[in-house]
Amino acid sequence: MNRESVLLTDLYQLTMLQAYYERGMNEVAVFEFFVRKLPEKRNFLIAAGLEQVLEYLEQACFAADELQWLQHCGRFRGDFVDSLADWCFTGDVDALPEGTLVFPDEPLLRIIAPMREAQLVETRIINLLQFQSMVAAKAARCVLAAAGRTLVDFGLRRAHGAEAGLLSARASYLAGFTGTATVLAGMRWGIPLFGTMAHSYIQANASETQAFENFARSQPGGTTLLIDTYDTEEAARKLVALMPKLAVPSIQAVRLDSGDLGEHARRVRAILDAGGLSDVRIFASGNLDEYRIRDLLQSGAPIDGFGVGTRMNTSADQPYLDCAYKLQEYAGSPRRKRSEGKATWPGRKQVRRAYGADGRMIGDLLTVASDSHEQDDLLIPAMRHGRRVKQSPALADIRARVCDGLARLPAPLRSLDPAQAYPVTVSQALHSLALAADRSASRQS
C-alpha cells in the first residue's frame, strides 16, 4: 500500500496537537470508535475496514514536503512542526475482528497511545471504519434477500470516488457477495471477477446476433450476454437460433438490465427453456437493492443472480453512520462526554457475547475491560507498540465469520424489516465507573 498523507485529516487535529505540545500533554490516551445508534431499518452492523486502518497506522508519518508546507502555511509554530519530524504510531490497538456483527455503543476499535498519536489518527480511522461497516451491512442484507443466489458488485462507476468504489467491492465481498466487476479488487484481494458487456458493444456491431456471436467466440470459457438493448424477448430468440452455430457453446447466462425485470425474466426463461437452453441462467441488474431483490423473488421471478451497484455501494437509503471516536481515558483517569444525546461510557471497555443452547446469539454485555465474565471477549489485540500482533485473516475467513454471525442472529433480526433491538446490557461495573468519572469531573470544574 502506498503511504497515505497524514495531512488527509481535519485542521483541528493539528491545532489540537500544537496546543497539546505547548502544554506538554502527551500522556497515554484511550480512544474508542463506536456507533451510537443503528441506521433506520437496520437490525445490525458488520465490523469492516480494520485491515485498512492497520495499514494506515503502520505507515503514518510526515513526509519532508508536508513538514515544509506546515512550516510555511502560517498556522503553526516552527518548533511544533519540527517536533512532528519523527511522529509515528507506536500505540496499541484492540478491535473486533472484521466480519463481527456489532450493535450500538459497542466499540469496534480501541486505540491506546500517547495523546498526540491517538488524536491525529481520529479522522482517517472514522473515515475507513464507518464506510466499510456501513456498506458491509447493506451488502449482507442483499445476501439475506437473495437466499443463496449469485450477487456481484457493480457499483464502481457510481461510487463516490475511486477509493469508495474499491473498498465497497471489498466490503460487499466479505459480507457474502459472490464477486465484483472491479478489476483492481480482483488483483489486490483475490476477489472473483464477473462481467458482461455494455450496450455500446451491441450497438457497435452490424447486428445483435453478430454481436452475440463475436463476443461468445472471444470468451470461449464462458460469458454472459446483455439482451435488452433493443427487444429483450426477440434477443432471447436470436440466442436460441445462434447456439447451434457455436462450436463450443460458451454462453452461461443472459443479463436483463431494464424494464419490468420480473416479467422479462419469466418470458425469457420460457423462450430459453423451449429452445433447449435450460442451463443458461438469467442475471438481472439495474438500480437493485435488498428490497427489490426480495420483491422480485417473492413474485416468483426466475432470476439466478443479481448485479447490485449504486444503492449498495453508497448505502443509498442510509448513507452514513452515527458514529464517533471518543476519548475514554487520559493519563490513567476515565474520561466521559456528558453532552445531551451524546453521552459516552468511560474507560476501556469489552464486549462479551452470550449464546443460547441452540447456538443463537441471545445478548451482549458492555462492560469494563477488567471485568471478568464467562461470555466470549469480542475485542482482541490487533497491534502492540505500533506493530501487528499477527497476520491479517484472509477474506475467505472474514466471509466465514459473517456467514456464521448471520446464521446465529435471531431470526427477526435477519429480516429486512425493523425488529426489536438486539439486547446490549451495560454492566454495573461500567455504570459505577461512569458515576466515578462524573464525580471527578465535578470536583475538577
TrEMBL record:
GO CC field: cytosol
SUPFAM superfamilies on file: Nicotinate/Quinolinate PRTase C-terminal domain-like (SSF51690), Nicotinate/Quinolinate PRTase N-terminal domain-like (SSF54675)
Pathway: Cofactor biosynthesis; NAD(+) biosynthesis; nicotinate D-ribonucleotide from nicotinate: step 1/1
Enzyme class name: ligase
Nicotinate phosphoribosyltransferase N-terminal domain ranges (all copies): 7-129
The protein's Enzyme Commission number: 6.3.4.21
Protein name: Nicotinate phosphoribosyltransferase
Stated family: Belongs to the NAPRTase family.
CDD domains cross-referenced by the UniProt entry: NAPRTase_A
Taxonomic lineage of the native organism: Bacteria, Pseudomonadati, Pseudomonadota, Betaproteobacteria, Candidatus Accumulibacter
Molecular function GO terms recorded: glycosyltransferase activity; nicotinate phosphoribosyltransferase activity
Keyword Zinc (UniProt): no
InterPro entries, sorted: Aldolase_TIM (IPR013785), N/Namide_PRibTrfase (IPR041525), NAPRTase_C (IPR041619), NAPRTase_N (IPR040727), Nic_PRibTrfase-Fam (IPR007229), Nic_PRibTrfase_pncB (IPR006405), Nicotinate_pribotase-like_C (IPR036068)
Catalytic activity: 5-phospho-alpha-D-ribose 1-diphosphate + nicotinate + ATP + H2O = nicotinate beta-D-ribonucleotide + ADP + phosphate + diphosphate
Nicotinate/nicotinamide phosphoribosyltransferase domain ranges (all copies): 151-329
Keywords: Glycosyltransferase, Ligase, Phosphoprotein, Pyridine nucleotide biosynthesis, Transferase
Gene that encodes it: pncB2_1
Annotated coiled-coil segments of the chain: none
Function: Catalyzes the first step in the biosynthesis of NAD from nicotinic acid, the ATP-dependent synthesis of beta-nicotinate D-ribonucleotide from nicotinate and 5-phospho-D-ribose 1-phosphate.
Any single GO BP term: NAD+ biosynthetic process via the salvage pathway
Post-translational modification: Transiently phosphorylated on a His residue during the reaction cycle. Phosphorylation strongly increases the affinity for substrates and increases the rate of nicotinate D-ribonucleotide production. Dephosphorylation regenerates the low-affinity form of the enzyme, leading to product release.
Stretches assigned to the Nicotinate phosphoribosyltransferase C-terminal domain: 375-433
